Amino acid sequence: MNALTTNWAVIRATLAEEKKRDLGRLRVEETGFLPAALEVIERPVSPTARVTAKVLMGGVALLGLWLTFGRTDIVASAPGRIVPTGAVQLVQPAEAGVVRRILVHDGDHVTKGQVLVLLDPTVSSAEATQARKAYEAAAFAVARTRAVIDGLDGKGFVFTPPAGADAATVAAQRALAQARLADVQASISAQVASGQIAQSDIATARVEVAKLTETLPLLDEQIAANEQLLAKGFVSKLKVIEMRRQRLAQARDRESALQSIRRASAQSAGAASTLTKARTEVRAALFDELVKANADMQLRQEELAKTQTRANFQELRAPVSGTIGQLSVHTEGGVVEAAKPIMTVVPADGKLVAEVKLLNRDAGFVSVGQKVDVKLEAFPFARYGSIPGKVIAISPDAVDDEKLGPVYVVRVALDRTRIDRGDRSVPVTPGMSTVADIVTGDRSFLSYLTSPIDEAKGSALRER
């Protein structure tokens, strides 16, 4: 405490002495009439000027050091927007139609396969019904033909109707196939009967030939015996002549029977050939019908699949799970155009990235892995800051942009997807406009300031 008191007393005495000295000095206007040497004595140079000069020189030196050794980032700015890693899915009708019901709204969360919009199915349903009936008719034709072929081959009558056919139609088609089989079998049976008649004639003629063959030798013996008796006069000549006549008649009958056998054999062979030909022709006709029926059934099946697909197009479903956006249809009963998007679905499981357009002049300095500061237009970075990230992909070729010209598409992974707004944390959503500052390197402040001079120096005195 005594030390403080002593120091304070010394300071007060010094200030009083300075004040007394100042009172004894001449005023500024008075010193102006003194010689220069006396003026310097009376009014020495203020030490403040010296200090100010030293401070200024030190500041300039520090500024030079800072400009020389201080570093600043070199950035390439690229505009873009926030997108999910999975591309935004478009929902669009395959063909023009009339809207019957709208089942979702903007911002709704949907699951994959969920129905979003129903179109009027009147026309497509009618076409599908007609195609189904045509396919069913072709399938019944195939089933009937196969049943007839199996029946002719001895496999039994097996009629297999198409699935889903009603019982009355199945019964009618089965009866039609049975009638066809009976008609074919009757035609074949007629050919078989003709052959059987010829075989019967052959058998009868053979019996006759056998009988005559057995009786002719006996008749010859009788004739020989009667000729001996005639020579002795025991029988009349007329009896021998009659017996010879009988022998000739039986020989003719035998020859006639043999001719009948040959004729009946020819008829039997012809009947067998006709039967074989008839069976072959019937089977060929049936297999030709089966081939045509199968081809027609396959054609009808393809048409049915096409109409069913068209019918399914009347239900617009979500291609992925996500959030509905950009819904452009709001009127039930309105007309939608083919292939024109009516809404989008932002995938729910995709991470958000910044997709930016890099100018051609900056493309040579940007590479994968470089750090990026992503600034959101919706949240001014001076107040809310930016989102750090890094480059994860660069398009291999430039694309044309109407405003920027040739640009490269760069994708930037975000370290976080929320912005602290002060009162609460707000999520980053797809579609937000961004400006990405890609850090391509650093340089000194001095080189930044002298870069215009370097550019001017490089092009100076070279113009035409």
TrEMBL record:
The keyword Glycoprotein does not apply. It is found in: Cell inner membrane. Belongs to the membrane fusion protein (MFP) (TC 8.A.1) family. This is Membrane fusion protein (MFP) family protein. NCBIfam families: type_I_hlyD (TIGR01843). One of its GO terms (cellular component) is plasma membrane. One of its GO terms (biological process) is protein transport. Its main location: membrane. PANTHER family: MEMBRANE FUSION PROTEIN (MFP) FAMILY PROTEIN, MEMBRANE FUSION SUBUNIT OF EMRAB-TOLC MULTIDRUG EFFLUX PUMP. The keyword Translocase does not apply. Keywords: Cell inner membrane, Cell membrane, Membrane, Transmembrane, Transmembrane helix, Transport. It is a single-pass membrane protein. It holds the Pfam family HH_AprE. It comes from Sphingomonas aliaeris. Residues 125-308 form the AprE-like long alpha-helical hairpin domain. Residues 352-441 form the AprE-like beta-barrel domain.
